[in-house]
Write a structure and sequence with these properties.
heterodimer; A: about 400 residues; two-stranded parallel ribbon; 2 strands; B: about 120 residues; alpha+beta; 4-stranded antiparallel beta sheet; 3 helices; about 40% strand
Chain lengths: ~400, ~120
């Protein structure tokens, strides 16, 4: 909806205001006349009409300077489903323009395309909210003033532009899969939106291994959706999940996609991540997980994508492949990394290794630190439960 | 349409170490660029070396202070510029990519509208 409105306002901030207006109008109108058959289209149409009004009232002199560059002249007509897809693709490619810094691209897309709050985006990036707000403002200004166009790049440019887009869709998925803040474990709407985008990108670039692998990664990880929450709303870790509740069709589709990507050789980061997810998906029980295969894949992933978060995940895999002491040593090597200093999963992984080493007081301390750092309530309850079970 | 100032940065020391044949080749590159994108060019020129530059700052007392040299001392200095008219940043970048820029690179800056 925001994406469709931006095409008219050609200004991110004005589009956001128009969408908020549309919601306010909806509350008033729907209360009297009932909810329309297609609420999404109703809202988008209202937001777009509002945007056209705002545009007419604007000073002509500022118009050519400030507005986003678009190719469309059909701003006034009614909205169809195909438009939604086109607009979202346009928006994601604008946010991921190479003239913006990579981190900014991702942040902007999460904010503009997925409607995450600035707080949530800051969390996803492990940075302060004020810094994220400033970064987003600068980026929106640059898009308007430098006239970064609002369009899907031509075929010849697509390959060079796709990596940034894949990164964004992946971050969108991980943010939805486990919410950085709030009372719910996940935000299903974000998960589904990332899945939609991955499918759209696959339609745009059907021969690209990394595009296929991102779709596979999302399918394989999301196949566990129904098994991650127990009967009392509690979080269930991979080890404790009832694997018969995993969504079989998603797994089959994901495995087929990642298999085809691997056969192309020289796997990229998303192919490696999907391959790791595939090892879990292929194990009928937790005890049958091929951990040395997973560690080997993480080694390759660290080469393709050197990041402290990847290194931490590798350390966790190592704790199952070679034992908790090896895992703990690898985790402790990462504990001074500034990017991980407020990352709850580092403390949680330490706690897990310490518990398995029967160093219970230290394990308790680590779990308590993790519980303090996480702002996801379901994860916090899970950590408190583990603390209670220590004694 | 919008206008962009395209700044050509290069390492002057590396430039100084080249021979005439090299400069001639670069000049030819600029001629070719001019022929190809003439319709989009609104101006442009080469600049004398940054050792010829003079900078003027206002000190805390509000007085103008004139100093020798470019405003910012950097390894790469501005050696020339073009003013390009383009529909959007993608079009401006596509044009700027054709500018010869040995020992450095190109910066594309949107020109603001005074109103």
């Amino acid at each position: 909806m925001l994406a469709a409105t931006i095409r008219i306002t050609r200004d991110f901030d004005v589009a956001e205001e128009c969408v908020q207006d549309a919601f306010a109008r909806a509350l008033a109108t729907w209360a009297q006349q009932g909810v329309p058959k297609n609420p999404g289209a109703w809202l988008t149409t209202v937001a777009r009409r509002r945007a056209i009004d705002v545009g007419r009232r604007r000073d002509v002199a500022t118009r050519s300077q400030r507005f986003l560059v678009t190719d469309d002249a059909d701003a006034g007509r009614e909205v169809t489903d195909g438009d939604f897809e086109d607009d979202r693709l346009r928006l994601i490619f604008t946010c991921c323009h190479p003239s913006l810094a990579t981190d900014t691209q991702v942040a902007l897309a999460l904010r503009m395309l997925c409607g995450l709050s600035t707080t949530e985006v800051a969390k996803a990036f492990l940075v302060k909210e004020s810094a994220m707000a400033a970064r987003l403002t600068r980026a929106k200004k640059k898009i308007a003033l430098a006239r970064i166009p609002y369009r899907v790049p031509e075929r010849s440019e697509l390959r060079g532009r796709i990596d940034a887009v894949l990164l964004v869709v992946h971050l969108l998925f991980t943010t939805g899969h486990t919410s950085p803040v709030g009372e719910k474990l996940s935000q299903i709407d974000l998960v589904e939106r990332s899945l939609d985008l991955a499918l759209m990108l696959r339609g745009l670039l059907p021969d690209d291994a990394e595009v296929a692998s991102l779709l596979a990664l999302i399918l394989l990880t999301d196949s566990r959706r129904g098994a991650r929450i127990g009967a009392d709303g509690e979080f269930l870790a991979l080890a404790d999940q009832d694997r018969s509740k995993w969504h079989r069709d998603s797994i089959d589709e994901g495995l087929a996609l990642v298999g085809a990507s691997i056969r192309r050789g020289r796997p990229g980061r998303f192919t490696l991540m999907a391959a790791i997810a595939a090892v879990h998906s292929s194990a009928a029980h937790w005890d049958e997980t091929d951990w040395s295969e997973i560690v080997g894949l993480y080694d390759l992933l660290l080469e393709a994508w050197p990041s402290p978060v990847v290194a931490l995940n590798r350390a966790v895999a190592l704790s199952f492949a070679e034992g908790p002491l090896a895992g703990l040593m690898a985790i402790d090597e990462l504990s001074t990394d500034p990017q991980l200093s407020t990352y709850p999963y580092l403390a949680a992984a330490r706690g897990d290794c310490l518990e398995r080493l029967e160093r219970l007081p230290e394990a308790r301390e680590a779990f308590e630190e993790a519980a303090l750092l996480t702002e996801n309530h379901v994860e916090r309850d899970f950590l408190r439960l583990r603390i209670a079970q220590l004694s | 349409m919008a206008e962009y100032l395209v700044l050509i940065y290069s390492n002057e020391e590396s430039w100084a170490a080249t021979d005439e044949a090299f400069s001639a080749k670069i000049m030819e590159g600029h001629s070719k660029f001019g022929e190809k994108h003439g319709a989009s060019l609104r101006g442009g020129n080469a600049l004398e070396p940054s050792t010829t530059a003079t900078s003027i700052r206002t000190d805390a007392a509000g007085k103008s202070v004139t100093t020798d040299g470019p405003f910012a001392e950097t390894k790469e200095a501005i050696g020339g510029y073009y003013v390009v008219e383009a529909a959007d940043l993608d079009a401006a970048i596509a044009i700027a990519k054709d500018i010869p820029a040995p020992f450095g690179g190109i910066e594309v800056r949107p020109i603001g509208a005074m109103s």
